[in-house]
Amino acid sequence: MIEFHNVSFIYPNGFKALDEINLKIREGDLLALVGENGSGKTTLIKHLNGLLKPTQGKVFIFGRDTKELTVAEVSRYVGIVFQNSDSQLFSETVEDEIAFGLRNFGFSEEDINLRINFALRLFELEIYRKKSPFLLSGGEKKRLCMACILAWDPRFIVLDEPTVGQDFLEKEKLIQMIDLLRRKGKGIVIASHDIEFLWKLQPKMVVMKNGRIIAYSSAEEIFSNSSILDQSNLIPPQLVELSKHLSTKAFQTIEQAKEWIKKRVNV
Amino acid sequence: MFRLPHSFIFSRQDSLIHRLDIRVKIIIFIEFLILSLILFNIRDQLTLLSFLGALIFLSKIERRILNSLAFITFLMAMIFILNLIISKEIIISLSYSLRFLLIILTSSSFFQTISPDELEYFLRLLRVPRYLRFAFISALRFVPLLMLDLIQITDSQRARGLELDKGNIFKRIKNRIPILIPLIISTINRSSQMAEALETRAFNSTKKDVLCLNLNFEKRDLIFLFIFFLPSLLTVGYYYIIYP
Ligand SMILES: Nc1ncnc2c1ncn2[C@@H]1O[C@H](COP(=O)(O)OP(=O)(O)OP(=O)(O)O)[C@@H](O)[C@H]1O
Ligand SMILES: [Mg+2]
What we know:
heterodimer; A: alpha/beta; 11 helices; 10 strands; globular; B: mainly alpha; binds adenosine-5'-triphosphate; binds magnesium ion
């Protein structure tokens, strides 16, 4: 479990990026962080593995204060894929890139091999195994970065803007993978502006504004609350808009909408 | 260690000094630089230092300067000790380290209060050719971006379990490779992107050179020019009038 107790964070230049954050994330949770540009999502994420330590308040990871742990110790359990993570690539081959993290955490060579295979398969990158990571396309690089983190099987997985630059099919695969991880009992945190993508996942949502959490609730409730939507400049997903016009309960999938309409139109 | 470069990057502030006419700023800084190079007398150096201190406070850059002060003091102490060993003169050694302090503070406040645009104007006054000027200014503008990249890459690698300060000196140097390579690559990418962007906007296709900088000399500029010329006047006064 990850707990934020009254966490505030001020950058060295004096900018207050987090303001009195209280939050609990359990294993098995699927949490979406939303909010405008600059609302503090990435800053919050950097507190999850101790890259940033709170200016005030405390962050506990499995009951231990992050101030007493190194980033490497926490990262073994909390894997973060950053917003522009494709700038982290440096190895000669894709498999070396994945092995880097595993070596840092001291896995045996045998184990490393198994895990590389697993990660490459998960993200359908097997054909690139011996290729240079620099030759991958933008979307493939992003997937490689996720593979690098998932390879060591952390208990919490944090994705900052995972859908940027991914085509429709990749997004669908990502949704399936996140579902799989959720069923395996991982705690998942996703920061994203991609509302349609989030809606398909039906996560619990944390809405941020100016470094504060202004709402914490199910996706359905957030998107039906117009005052929160106004405050955070969020636009509801199309299915929610549609159901609003039809004055019915929010549709979660296109199938539900189809059923509902069919029933009324008698086709 | 990440702090020191900050004291040589333009700091976007709205201060009396920042708003001065660029020509006045340049004159003041050249004067201060010459004085810090030639003064070799603790009394004169301290006079200059107090003016420099006033200038730093008026330009609201004291926080960044204070942040790098620990490192500067360390270097000053080194200079002092080395000189003391060689010359065995406390006063002279002190003057040497004061000279170092003055040069650092002058150049640091120069770079923090003169924006890249103004700096370009300065280089133009020195008749530096345009392509060189442009290269210099864009290199300068790249520094803050490079630092952001550095932080971001370091964060990503630490999130993958990289421990920078582990092991002996060789191990530590080796630990830097996963940061250095991506940094170099992203810099190369960024500069080629910039080159492409410049070409699409027809950079250097005319010979005419336009300056987008307002030059207006006001009364305020005159006053500051006078105030900050006092150290020179005082020095000249000390040497030629009071103790001729
Ligand atoms: N290193 C830094 N120094 C000072 N201020 C910073 C720094 N990094 C971020 N900030 C500021 O903190 C605020 C929050 O930034 P953050 O990156 O957490 O936003 P975000 O919610 O992730 O935005 P986005 O949706 O654009 O990714 C922003 O206003 C930003 O300008
Ligand atoms: Mg962000």
